[in-house]
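Q: I have two molecules that I believe assemble together. Could you output structure tokens for the complex as a whole instead of separate predictions?
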Amino acid sequence: MESSTGDSSGAYAPSYSNRDPGMNVPVHSKQNLAPLSPYLNFDPVYLPQSQPEFIFPEGASRQRGRFELAFSQIGVSCMAGAAIGGIGGLYNGLRSTTLAGDYEQSEALNLFPLNRLLNYVMKQGSATANTLGVLAVMYSGFGVLLSWGRGSDDELNTLTAATATGLLYKSTAGVRKCGIGGAVGLGLASLYCLWTARDRLQGFRQEYSPA
Amino acid sequence: MEEYAREPCPWRIVDDCGGAFTMGAIGGAIFQSIKGFRNAPSGMNRRFLGSLSAIKQRAPIIAGNFAIWGGMFSTIDCTLVHFRRKEDPWNSIISGAATGGILAARNGLPAMAGSAVIGGVLLAIIEGVGILFTRLSAEQFKPPNPTLEDPSQLGPPPGFHTQQPNY
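A: Yes, here they are, computed for all two components at once.
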């Protein structure tokens, strides 16, 4: 087959066979892998070993910022508040329905015990969910504003946003309570920052006092 | 925001709940500030105080109601995605109607039906507007009708000098 085509095309052009000994240059780094696939056959030095390499869209940031995480955080805190408040309301409702005082009152109130229980759960659950959700909205809003305004996203943003949230949430309750709210926010944010940065702190400690 | 795609399904519930809570909180704060301002006794200071107290009292409740709506909607949406094995506008419309119906469940059957219809129609409008915008923006990228140029004015191709053009 090959020779016949070579003969017929030889009238028009010089035939370059792929069996030409002058072109027998090894293109494979390992000859024993050659029959597998040419794609499997490259120098493993070219494989990046240290870190994963992702392709990012042009102009996009390397990780999700505060805005992309804000809605999830708000949703999580809202749902957690609903769950916590619901359990608390269930506890309170059970206690008040079983430990109701005198007989007439308990009879009047226990007409629909399930309904009462449901009301307890819904009321306390929604109150806690709203509180936690509003706190999360404030915190996320401050965090997003700070990270956009400063152009960076670090622990300082977290601390400032948490303090501002505490101050704003208690801003109508008087100067003293407002200060307490800010202090509570600052304390919680400091604990959070210490917890997330514990690896770095460990590194510092080992660096400065090699034991 | 331009690269903001929606989360995959189970996490979408949390995301939608938070988004709806935020919407309700901000919108409720604006709405209640105006309402409290108008309903307060006269005097600028009192009006601002009334506005503030209205925000404090009512905005979290509106936000919570929004969050319940969003979370329920997204839960039903994800359930439908799981069982129907596709994501289309019908999912949203059905889950909007179901959400409206479920959240009005304690007000009696007629209220449930009314809320379900309102929810379904609302979501149908939203989906329809979305599809409309997609169509309109797709119209922009449609290639213009290519005008075929007459090749004969280029003359005969260079390899055919010996032949006479016979066209």
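A: One point stands out. Chain B is about 70% helix and 0% strand.
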